[in-house]
Backbone:
């Protein structure tokens, strides 16, 4: 728990110091970028980056994972800003505050999202400049996870499934593997890369990330069905009203809970296959599951 | 002229072979990405990448600039897709065809733009994987040029200036330097990087790009004022109607023509300072200017 708070403090301080000041011209754009990034939230993905690095012994080739963690959070935040836009989910509330297009305007939200996606790659390029091979590996991992076959592909498939009756289990898995699990896999793999993880260790991290990502998405679906907006910090019960293809809608809430347990167990097994100290990562996975127990 | 056609053929073939097939799931997303990329246009930026590489003698460290050229075109195309959206310029026509949100829908256009921006970094990471230092240098150049202080900053400033009376010459220069010149500078610098250009040569390329970019934007402003939509392939006279801050609006058409000449001359001078063969680049700069002569 103390460790989790230390990670969160590092991330919040990193956001504060690595992002451009809010008065950088054009100020409205940089204000919107900071507004979106400073919205709090669980910071799950950057915590996973930092924790994955710490799971390995610190060697002479270890690099500070913080810029990589912030790059991942930039990508996640951009995807939320664009996802909330009127032409997508049209949401007014995110992490308990007005969404960026409600606090500013649609054009500013669009551009702030674009800028955060670009900033993610700038962070990697600038902060690992003395380690170009690492910078390259991190950029490759991030670009792949955030690309048209993974994160964006998952969002597109999610959109296409909306309101359509009879989403298949396979379509649902495509959405979850890509919309959610891709960036969680990448977070763990990027943390591993900063620690100099071997190819095999990276694969174990990706496997763990895939299971953890699936568990996390199902937990989110269950919470959307059983919580209120104040608890969630975003509009509750919205998935069902929007006719979203969720695990709960396709398989029912009991099956969803079971599936979340299974996927969490699989993630924990994958973490245990790593040689390093994965106590934090396994307890984080179990804590996430605890939200719906 | 033959050389120009050869560059264009390489770029079109590269778009065809490097982009994911249109039936890659989710197909609608990949169709939209291809639709946007295959819209033709001058391909000015990727031509500049290829030509900048060719301005230097081919050495043992030279790399194929085509993936870098395509990455630049992906970023340019994404910026046009987002710029055309209803919350931005709300344009129906681009390169003589319906804009992406008109041919598909707004959400698909938003995601196709996001995907092309991400794909630009994936192209660099994947195609220069055996040259991580080069991959890193290219990603750094592109992320900087496309970021919140340059390309996106210029678009934001452009938007803020719209309909505002009395845009100053300084504000206008900020818009043009960032919205247009940034990516033209980066195109030349990235082409130079693929040829192993020295730091000093890269600086000359950036200087040339800045002048060429300013000239190109003014030429575009003048053409918007004097051409019809069929000639432009996009809605003509729109800048004036939208109250856009253009050089023509601020300084008048005669001053705009003079400024375009001066900037073209400055670009040509910078090209001549390079040691290599810049005949193609100088004639391209003069040809662009010829459109308003």
Residues:
């Amino acid at each position: 728990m103390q460790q989790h708070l230390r990670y969160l403090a590092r991330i919040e301080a990193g956001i504060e110091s690595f992002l451009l000041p809010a008065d950088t011209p054009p100020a409205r754009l940089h204000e919107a970028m900071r507004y979106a990034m400073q919205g709090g939230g669980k910071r799950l993905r950057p915590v996973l980056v930092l924790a994955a690095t710490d799971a390995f012994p610190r060697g002479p080739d270890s690099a500070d994972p913080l810029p990589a963690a912030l790059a991942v959070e930039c990508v996640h935040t951009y995807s939320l800003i664009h996802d909330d836009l009127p032409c997508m989910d049209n949401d007014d509330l995110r992490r308990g505050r007005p969404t960026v297009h409600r606090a500013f305007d649609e054009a500013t939200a669009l551009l702030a999202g674009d800028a955060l996606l670009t900033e993610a790659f700038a962070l990697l390029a600038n902060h690992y400049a003395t380690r170009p091979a690492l910078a390259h590996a991190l950029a490759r991992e991030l670009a792949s996870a955030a690309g048209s076959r993974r994160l964006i592909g998952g969002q597109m498939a999610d959109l296409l499934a909306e309101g359509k009756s009879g989403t298949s289990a396979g379509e649902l898995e495509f959405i979850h593997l890509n919309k959610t699990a891709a960036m969680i896999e990448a977070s763990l793999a990027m943390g591993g890369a900063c620690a100099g993880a071997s190819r095999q260790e990276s694969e174990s991290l990706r496997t763990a990330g895939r299971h953890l990502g699936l568990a996390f998405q199902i937990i989110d679906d269950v919470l959307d069905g059983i919580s209120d907006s104040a608890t969630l910090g975003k509009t509750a019960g919205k998935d069902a009203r929007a006719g979203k293809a969720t695990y709960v809608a396709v398989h029912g809430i009991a099956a969803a809970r079971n599936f979340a347990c299974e996927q969490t167990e699989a993630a924990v097994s994958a973490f245990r296959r790593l040689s390093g100290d994965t106590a934090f990562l396994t307890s984080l996975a179990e804590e996430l599951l605890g939200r719906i127990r």
